[in-house]
Amino acid sequence: MLVRPIGKNHLLPWNKGLLVGQKKPLQPKHVWSIRVRLEVAHMWRDLALFNLAIDSKLRACDLVKLRVDEICSGARIRDRATVVQKKTGRPVQFEITEQPTTSLEVWLRVIRTTGSRYLFPSRLHARPHLSIRQYSRLVRAPTQARSALRRPSGIVLRRRSAG
Q1: Contact call for residues 50 and 34 (beta carbons, < 8 A)
Q2: Which distant-in-sequence residues (6+ apart) come within 8 Å of 135 by Cβ?
Q3: CA–CA separation, 62 and 77 (whole Å)
Q4: pTM recorded for the entire structure
Q5: Mean pLDDT estimate for the chain
Q6: In sequence order, which residues have a C-beta less than 8 Å from that of residue 20 and are 6 or more positions away?
Q7: pLDDT in tens, 122-160
Q8: Residues 6+ apart with CB under 8 A from 52
Q9: CB under 8 Å to 111, separation ≥6 — which residues?
Q10: pLDDT, tens only, 80-109
Q11: How far apart are CA 63 and CA 83, in angstroms?
């Protein structure tokens, strides 16, 4: 067990006072407040990523590896997209509703100038797409910004079960 020394004979666990385990899912009012904050701040990539994550319910590893041709057909954003999941190897189809479509249209105007084939490219030239670590930092930031509620939470999406 990892501990922090605080005195001669007293040791303090590293996770004392922290919420461990599964976090509560975001409520719709929290989702809307995060969307509004990202839109007001003109954070188009983060808004598109957040909207697509909420809408698609994909795992982070699958979400960051989305390619533009999986979401778009020419200049138009598709109504439905199909992605093969990394963990299961099975194709998953999801619907792209109005909220993600509008944020993706704005983000695609920015991204098409770079010529990247990935929907969320990395800022580092050595990597083709956003890393999962960077995605987790982006997810954590808006949920911590709503600290006025003083309640620990994280983005936990309810997955559709296959059975």
Answers
A1: yes
A2: 49, 60, 63, 64, 120
A3: 18
A4: 0.72
A5: 80
A6: none
A7: 877 667 888 888 888 877 776 665 543 344 445 555 555
A8: 58, 63, 66, 96, 100, 103, 104
A9: 68, 119, 121
A10: 999 999 999 999 999 999 989 999 999 998
A11: 9
Residues recorded for the chain: 163
Contact between 115 and 75 under an 8 Å Cβ cutoff? The reply is no
Q: Where are the alpha helices (DSSP H) in 23-97?
A: 28-40, 44-56, 60-64, 68-71
Q: Do β-strands 72-73 and 11-13 pair in parallel, antiparallel, or remain unpaired?
A: unpaired
Question: Which tokens sit at 163?
Answer: 């059975």
Both tokens of 95, joined, read: 């619907």
Cα 29 to chain center, whole Å?
17
Q: How far apart are CA 114 and CA 109, in angstroms?
A: 10
Contacts of 42 (CB under 8 A, 6+ apart): none
**27 Ramachandran zone, left/alpha/beta (phi>0; psi -120 to 50):** beta
Element (H, E) at 12: strand 11-13
Looking up tokens 């509620």, which residue turns up?
149
Phi-psi bin for 114: left (phi > 0), alpha (psi -120 to 50), beta? alpha
